[in-house]
């Protein structure tokens, strides 16, 4: 697994590296200290995951869409100073959103998830839209891939 870490400070990058290395010492890292360098790296190399620090120089507005278009890897945002963000990329999700995502990663359809959680299918779709937005992924495949890769790290 290869992870691109992009943050405006060495301390932020070191913090994220330490958190992921503790979960899996065989993870490879590449680092960028600004958005332009990060997107050039994402276009040039294949990554399993891209993590952007919230205060990354050059990040803003349409740049997030530019990054998600530049790579097939899931793109996450992290506040490196927040240990929860470094150790759990899903900390931004509600309990229910996480339950839905876990079932998506297990290969269940929206209808099957709705049955298991005793919810309407439209509610599952609403939860998934929020998951995609919060994790900065485009679809259920990217979200499930991120969940499965994170499971491998633990």
Question: How is this structure best summarized?
Answer:
The chain is an alpha/beta fold. It is 55% helix and 12% strand.
Q: Could you explain the architecture of this structure?
A:
With 154 residues, the protein is of the alpha/beta class. Strands 2-1-3-4 form a 4-stranded parallel β-sheet, with helices on both faces. It has helices at 10-23, 35-44, 63-70, 83-87, 95-105, 110-117, 121-135, 140-153; strands at 2-6, 28-32, 49-53, 75-78. It has 8 helices and 4 strands; from the N terminus they run βαβαβαβααααα. It folds into 2 domains: 2-87, 3-Layer(aba) Sandwich (Rossmann fold), CATH 3.40.50.2300; 95-153, Arc Repressor Mutant, subunit A, CATH 1.10.10.10. It is globular.
Q: What's the end-to-end separation, in Å? A: 13 Å
How much helicity do the residues have?
A: 55-70%
The fold-level CATH name of the largest domain is Rossmann fold
What's the name of the CATH homologous superfamily of the largest domain? Response regulator
- The domain tally reads 2
How would you sum up the global shape? globular
What's the CATH first level of the largest domain? Alpha Beta
The class by helix and strand makeup works out as: alpha/beta
Regions with little confidence, pLDDT below 50 for 5+ residues: none
What is the overall pLDDT average? 84
| Strand composition percent | 5-15%
How many strands in all?
4
